[in-house]
Amino acid sequence: MAAAPKTNDPVDQQMPRRQFLSWFSGIALFGSAVAGVFSTFVFLKPRATYGQPNRFSIGRPDEFPPGARLAIDTKRVCIVREGNKIAAISTTCTHLGCIIAPTETGFQCPCHGSQFDVDGNVTGGPAPKPLSWFQVSLTPSGELEVDKDNEIQTGTYLSV
Amino acid sequence: MSKESNSMGKTLLDLPANVWRSIFRNSLPSSDRGRAATSFTNFFLHIQPVRVSRQALRPSYTMGLGLISFFLFVILTVTGILLMFYYVPSTTQAYDRMLDLRSAVAFGIILRNMHRWAAHAMVAVVFLHMCRVFLTGSYKPPREFNWLIGVALFLLTLLSSFTGYLLPWDQLAFWAITVGTSIAGYAPFIGKALKFMLLGDATVGQEALLRFYVLHVVVLPLVLTITVAIHFWRIRKDGGLAKPEPKLAPALPAVEVLIAEPAPVLVAASSSAAEGTAPARRFTIQGLVRGPLIQVGKLEEDTVFSWPSLLIAELFVLMLTIAGVLVVSYFFNAPLEQPVNVMHPPNPAKAPWYFLGLQEQVSYSAFWGGIGIPGIELLLLALVPYIDRGKDGVGRWFARQRVLANSVFLFFVFVNIVLIVIGTFFRGANWQFVSPF
Predict the structure, then answer these.
(1) Does A126 sit within 8 Å of B362, measured CB to CB?
(2) Closest of A157, A158, A143, A146 to residue A55, by C-alpha
(3) Could you tell me the pTM of the whole model?
(4) Is the pLDDT of residue B273 over 50?
(5) A152 Cβ contact partners less than 8 Å away, ≥ 6 residues apart
(6) Which chain A residues are closer than 8 Å to B202 by Cβ?
(7) Residue of chain B whose Cα is closest to the Cα of A149
(8) Residues in B touching A126 (Cβ below 8 Å)
(9) pLDDT of residue B4
């Protein structure tokens, strides 16, 4: 009784060993589970895809006569030439990813009826955004190259 | 010498009977005790209670919908495994394998038809089962968590059906999945990453086919099986199917179970309160243990033995389900359209029927139609037992005390069915409104 516990004893304020061990193992187990789930997601997200490259050549400028609006469905772009200006407009619907087709007045989506004008601005239907314009450049070999990773301002043409 | 050969001969003679008895511990029951023991000692039967309330057996109460869902899942598993022997998840081969099922594989057509129609049926029946549980108020305590499991099972059913939709690799499959996964892409924050991870690529292609295949044949069935097991286990632990309150039903004596000392821990699960230390305590019956420890006294009057009453009912539903699937599969072929042509979306491109309500909503607003509203609806659905805390009207169809909850639920059901009907029959090229008449 006389030897009452000293409140300032550092040993009293320390976490008991059992408690420390259970906390430690709990955190370690939980951490391992989180790391496991995270690694699974990292594993499932492909580093490289087997699909088509996003930068591709579409041929020489003279293959597209002035006034042409040629949809290349395999690449999902429409090549537009007005005079000597060339641009590439996406033909992937901004709504749900269907392939849209060029029409007299612009573009039309077959899935949910979205309509776009010739510049890809939405004129009707559920599409939330205008169609993307992709950067077109002239390679040293004289071919046109479209870069779908590089979206540019609507109405930006390449002069050839 | 002769003595020994005699005993050898006896051993051999008794061998079949001994093997049989080591597997089936009880002969076909002729007494109540035998009926209880039969249910209790057989692995497949012990999943069921020894006794079951008459209400749970009434076809007009459950309509057997939960059981039909389960049997459809069994049919899907069996036919699915068989189909796997001939299917190749490759963009160059999958479609050809579909054609082979028609021409080169014995029973190929009927197996594919059964798998397809049972899948559609399962979506519908699981939904109807959910409606039954809601409209009879069967999600009330203590069954809240089982309702949650049920909502999860409904989602897993939809996902299983949706992932299977891509596998034939025809135009129908390709464009339905293109539209469906784009909807997932509208989810806030994680949408883009989710879509990419689901497809394994920017667009639907070989990677997506392989991923959907693995999800469809391994991941989802495994999760579904485990979840179904929990669902069944919880039914038992929650005291069987929901019944009306005792005061509404004719007054019944509780089941008397005499327990010889020492009292086994086994039956403590649903002990009906503290009646002290008397050697005879009252329990509701979950199972009867053979042997000296527990004896049966009086039994609840509105229950019957599972063997044979429940078993016969279950067999009947099983036969009905198999017969239904077979008949439909015999007369109607599963659709197979042209092989995938990435250049030419069909016009209109439609999702599977159970997602056409969603697609109809999506045609107004991609985010709200595809993610926002369905998300809110699902959240409400999951939280139903925690929002509706009223205790009345359990175990009866359209109980008057539940008129508000039932009306709200039926309103949501009605709106979704109308949307599906519009999406299915009233939408033509470019998703324009057309009349089917």
Answers:
(1) yes
(2) A146
(3) 0.80
(4) no
(5) A133, A134, A135
(6) 49, 51
(7) B202
(8) 362-366
(9) 58
What does residue A51 show for φ and ψ, rounded to 5 degrees? -75, -165
Which stretches within chain A are classed as H helix? 10-13, 17-44
**Which of chain B's residues have a Cβ under 8 Å away from the Cβ of A41?**
197
Where b means 16+ CB within 10 Å and e means fewer, A36-58 reads eeeeeeeeeeeeebebeeeeeeb
Q: Is there a contact between B402 and B392 (Cβ–Cβ < 8 Å)?
A: yes
Q: Tokens standing for B183?
A: 């909807």
Give CA separation, A159 vs A57, A86, A88, in Å: 17, 6, 13
Bond before B348 cis per omega within 30 degrees: yes
**A16 CB within 8 Å of a chain B CB:** no
DSSP state of B241: S
H or E segment and range at residue B153: helix B144-166
pLDDT band at B288 (very low <50, low <70, confident <90, very high): very low
Residue with tokens 């015999």: B330
Residue B303's contacts (CB-CB under 8 Å, 6 or more residues apart) are B51, B52, B53, B54, B285
B205–A126 CB contact, under 8 Å: no
A4 phi/psi in degrees, rounded to 5: -65, 150
Q: How far is residue A75's CA from residue B202's CA, in Å, rounded to a whole number?
A: 12
Classify each residue of B373-385 as buried b or exposed e, where b means 16 or more C-beta atoms within 10 Å of its C-beta.
bbeeeeeebbebb
Distance CA(B50)–CA(B39), nearest Å, equals: 6
Residues A51-74: pLDDT tens digits? 777 788 888 888 888 888 888 888
Sequence-ordered list of residues with C-beta below 8 angstroms from that of B1, at least 6 positions apart, any chain? none
Please check whether residue A29 is in contact with residue A113, taking contact to mean a CB–CB distance below 8 angstroms: no
C-alpha B264: how far from chain center = 34
| Residue pairs between chains A and B whose CB atoms are closer than 8 Å | 85
- Interval B202-222: pLDDT, tens: 888 999 999 999 999 999 999
Chain-centroid distance, C-alpha A38: 21
Q: Is the peptide bond before B142 cis (omega within 30 degrees of 0)?
A: yes
Please state which of the ranges B122-131, B254-263, B374-383 shows the lowest mean pLDDT. Answer: B254-263
Backbone torsions φ then ψ of B195, nearest 5 degrees: -65, -45
A98 touches chain B (CB under 8 A): yes
Measured distance CA(B344)–CA(A98) in Å, rounded: 9
Interhelix angle B108-135/B144-166, nearest 10 degrees = 150
Cα dihedral B227, B229, B233, B238 in deg (nearest 10): 30
Q: How far apart are CA A54 and CA A147, in angstroms?
A: 6
Q: Between B107 and B43, where is the model more confident?
A: B107
**Distance, CA of B292 to chain centre:** 38
Q: Which two tokens stand for residue B62?
A: 């459950």
